[in-house]
Amino acid sequence: MDRGSGGNAVRHGAVARAAGSFKPEVRLALPAIRRELSVSDPIQRTPYDRIGGEAGVRRLTRRFYALMDSLPEAATCRAIHPPSLESSEQKLFEYLTGWLGGPPLFVERRGPPMLRWRHLHAPIAGPEIEGWLACFRQAWAETVADQALGALVLPQVEGLARHMRNRAEG
Description:
CATH topology: Globin-like
Number of domains: 1
CATH class: Mainly Alpha
Strand content: under 5%
Helix content: 55-70%
Number of strands: 0
Shape: globular
Number of helices: 12
Distance between the termini: 39 Å
Order of helices and strands: HHHHHHHHHHHH
CATH architecture: Orthogonal Bundle
């Protein structure tokens, strides 16, 4: 974690802890994004701030799950979710809020994310990952205007999604 950022180290502490269960390149994602943003954003707003805070994350997660219900390419991903996506949407909202530098809602309410462990009950391979990513990419494109932020965040999200694989193809 970037400890030289003073208050940001405390504010982003949950993000660094949340990413701790992932591969090193994923765990280091947000500090790398913050370093890159400090060059392009002299005010040094967090990704959470740049997408519009709570309202922006809510728009993103709401659109994400609406797409999961409607995109044909997301059908295999949708099939491993419960009939109602309301709880899944809330969990993603809480997780992304903290991961993007906002309040650590997920950690406060549910403990350490351990996302891969939390998803072991669901068979996740290529089709589920690609369906999830199709929803995320489209939701991001439709709800987040900051293209520079997308160029930094989306590759990290893609790495995280691919890390969730828990079964081979076939």
